[in-house]
Design goal:
The structure is a single chain. Helix content is 9%, strand content 27%. The protein has a domain of 68 residues: Alpha-Beta Plaits (2-Layer Sandwich), CATH 3.30.70.2330. The chain has a 5-stranded antiparallel beta sheet. The relative contact order is 0.17. The protein has 1 helix and 5 strands, in the order E-E-E-H-E-E. Strand 4 and strand 5 form a beta hairpin. The chain has 108 residues and is mostly beta strands. One of its GO terms (molecular function) is zinc ion binding. Keywords: Hydrolase, Metal-binding.
Length: 108
């Protein structure tokens, strides 16, 4: 549904009956592709209320999609492409359990 680097739209859903902090994720074609994870949604909503949040599609995964978002109005960028693991060497680490924002150097 999306191409890496393609813009995506984040839409707050304050009337969402499950989570008033919900942020829906839409493709450039207007198709909903998911939600920001509940534990991250409050931070994204706060950034959205303070200014422009820009997001792009990075890649799809079996459990959903990875997006890149800039919470300060700067254009997000894709990381260098990584080589996929071969079928005979399965990954053992769980990359979905660790998350951290990209480093943003302080303005001097």
């Amino acid at each position: 549904m999306c191409v890496p680097g393609e813009p995506i739209e984040l839409r707050p859903e304050p009337k969402n009956p499950v989570d008033p902090n919900a942020v829906a994720v839409f493709s450039v074609r207007g198709i909903q592709i998911g939600y920001i994870r509940a534990e991250r949604a409050p931070m994204v909503r706060l950034a959205m209320s303070r200014g422009e949040v820009i997001a792009i599609f990075q890649r799809s995964e079996p459990w959903g999609a990875i997006i890149r978002a800039s919470l300060d109005g700067r254009a997000p960028t894709l990381p260098p492409e990584q080589v996929k693991d071969s079928a005979d060497s399965p990954r053992t680490e769980k990359t979905d359990e660790v998350w951290w924002p990209d480093y943003i150097p302080p303005d001097d």
